[in-house]
Every structure is written in C-alpha cells, then in structure tokens.
Amino acid sequence: MKKIILLVVLVVFTVSGVLAQRKRVGFGEALKRKWVSFVAKAESRGQKNLKMRVRNLTRDSLDLVFENGRMFVANGNYQPFVVTRSVTLAMQGSESKETYLKGFCGNASVPGVPLSADLEYTTRMGSEEMVQVLTQLQAMKLDDCRQMQSLVWHFTNQHGLERIYVDDERSKAFMHVVAQTLNTKIPDYSIQYEEPSELSSFMFTGVAQSMTAKLDYQLPETKSLDIVLLDDKGNVVKCFKHLDNLPQGRYQTAVNADIVGLSQGKYALAIVDENKNRYFEQEVQI
User: Fold this and answer.
1) Which residue, of 90, 119, 136, 162, is most buried by count of CB atoms within 10 Å of its CB?
2) Domain range spanning residue 244?
C-alpha cells in the first residue's frame, strides 16, 4: 500500500512539473504566442518611464525579457517609447504584475505622450543596430548617460552622431562604445542643444547651446591665428579663440565654445591668419 501511495505522489509531482514549467522568453515572442497581455501608461519617476501591467495567460512560470530597443507606440500622434534598459520580469502562472521600463522618446518631431494618459499601445522592435548599441551600453553600465536621448534620435530620426554632445570622460567613453559597435568614426565635433522638456513637449528643440571640437593642423611658419566659425558665404559669425605667435609645427587644439543664437544650417569651423589664409577648415552642421 505504501508503495502505491509513493508511486501516486511521484506521478503527481512529475505531471505538475510537466504542466507548470519555467520559461525564459522575450516579450515580443510571448505576445506573439499569446502567453501574455499588457496595459501601458507613460510615467515619470526621475526620468521617462513606462508603467507596465502584465498578465501571464499561461499556467507556466515565465521569465519575461523586455528587450533593448523595443518600442511601445501609443495611439495618436505621439512619440513611441523606446526601451533602453533590458529587464527580466519573473512571473508565476496566471499572475498579473507591475513593472517600470526605463527608456526615451523615439521620434524627435512629434510630442511625447502626456504623463499618465490612458492610451492603447502596440509594440515592435527598433532597428538591429539600435538594439546592439543599447545592449552594449547597458553591459558597460553607460546606459544612464545624459546622451541617451540624442542617441535614440540618431536611430529613429537619423540625427547625425555629432548631435551627441561629448564634453567629459564619461561621454567620451559613451561615444567610443557607440562608434565601435557601429563600426564608424567618432565625429571631430559635437553640438549641444537645449534639452527637451515639458515646454517643448519633449521634442527636439533644435536650439544650439555649445560646441566641442578637436582641430588638427600644421603651421609652416610662426603665425598668430584665430579659430572662427564661418557662415555659408565665408563671413565670420563667431571668433572662438586667438592663438598668438605659434611657432612652426603640428598642433591639436580643443574648442569648447558658446554658440547660443546661431540658427540651424551649414557652417565651417576654420583657423585663419590676419590675411584670411586658412590652415584648417571643417564643415559643421548645426
């Protein structure tokens, strides 16, 4: 009799183990298989967040992975929310659970979703390149840098990498990871714009604030020089720095300059002498 009871207990545990398994699955795949459902709402808790209420529609335990680069698109003319920090949500069978996703707005030219607005969302993945870069930045613990919004707009709005402002060692490390992952060159200059906010509906402002650049040039003889910004007609619109009596040689000069008041367009960063001879010139897009 004891053997029969033991056998029944083993069978029950075995069947339970088969019926209720723990599965690790991406959020997109779980939606496709109709294993989960969700309700989303934009919220702000120190940065842009998406509050998610997820329901496990299966009897299995799920480790639900919210992928880097996943986009949640609200109905209406609003910016999608782009997940920039992958997280895993552990769920029991038939459980409903809340979590917050960290991310940024994914379309520079339309307003962000009003906080706590009750809207329906669909979801899709962003580009493979964006996913790779965001994943690498998270691995390197650089996904909390203030350059993240500009980076997302590089992928969703084709903003140039020069719009990712680089002015300190951490931002240099950030750009190194981005350029290395994309197998491209780091721009020789960067532009800082007025930060998006509620006043701009979290859209790209296009209002230039400052510029950093690295100038590499050769002097054939001793010269006094000016580092200037030229408009498309060759007129000086800003003089950034005067260099007095530089001897012959090769130089690298860093520029960190205020460009408040300049409109968007093409300019040239140049090094000129008193006779307007140019020893360095680079196109700059503001």
Assistant:
1) 162
2) 209-285
